[in-house]
Amino acid sequence: MRERTIASHFVRAALRGAERRGLDTTALLAELNLPPAVLNEPRARIAPEQFTALMQRVWDALEDEYMGFGRGRSKPGTFAMACYTLIHCPTLEKAWGRGMMFYGLFEEAPKLSLERDGDSVWLLVDDSRLNDPDHFLVESLLLIWHRLGSWLIGQRIRLLEAAFSYPEPAHSGEYDLLFPAPQRFAAGRTGLRFQTRYLDMPLLQDERTLKQFLKNSPADLLARPDGGDSLTSQIRRLLGRDCNQWPDLDHVASQLHTSPQTLRRHLREEGTSFQELKDHLRRDLAIYHLGRDGLSLQDIAEQLGFSEASAFHRAFKKWTGLTPGAYRAHQDI
């Protein structure tokens, strides 16, 4: 679902380089009508389109596609030019190779590489040249190149594994949306592993489709959650958007061809529960609707399955640290 929201950690992490470059990030958030609480409330979240706008604004303000995290700047348009250099390649391997060669022309650019490992291959990023304490840029590069590759061949590249050279962070629960695969931390390398067969696939895009693709990329690639085939993503799809018609756990288990007991156990293993999944989906749908003018707070409460607006108020404050009215007020400025 496009309505999946972005945790405030990624907002703070994205702004770290801009702050180091002297950009007034509080003013920037106000300019984008984002609540100031995003910077100091760990539970706060924003809509994907707001995150896209934030990324684009930071790139424009710094004139740097590395957002202040690199040793040098990456001038606006560098990513687009890299895409134009690779769009006529016959296969994904050739395209990625040419893109990596293009970035290799810049001495201070982070190094990306492909490393074959039997029937699989690693897409690796060397972050030794970055000043990136929250690992925001290195993770962004992995997301961008993985999702660019998926777009080029017209299908999602299913990940086998995601590895990170640094210890597991406090917000690692968010990684299932970014890197839908088993994750290893303190792994000695940072990269994504997938089947080698994708490298031989032909490109299905051309300059015409690339022009449209670049209108919102790579910011849109960062803001687009991808739960892949994870259990939580499957359940969210089964629940849908009508909170008043949600199936119960027994029905969901039947749809997934498993027993309720087994489903509960698998959810516990993923660190969540059926009720928590429903709460998270309600939260994301609430943020989606609050960013639009069509519904009153009472209407939103009813759509989310709350019998009273006051119950919605309390739940939203618990989920995000903000009241629904305060959140919407910043959208209307």
Automatic annotation (TrEMBL):
It holds the Pfam family Arabinose_bd. SUPFAM superfamilies: Homeodomain-like (SSF46689). The keyword RNA-binding does not apply. Keywords: DNA-binding, Transcription, Transcription regulation. It comes from the Bacteria. Residues 233-330 form the HTH araC/xylS-type domain. PANTHER family: HTH-TYPE TRANSCRIPTIONAL REGULATOR GADX (PTHR47894), HTH-TYPE TRANSCRIPTIONAL REGULATOR VQSM (PTHR47894:SF1). This is AraC family transcriptional regulator.
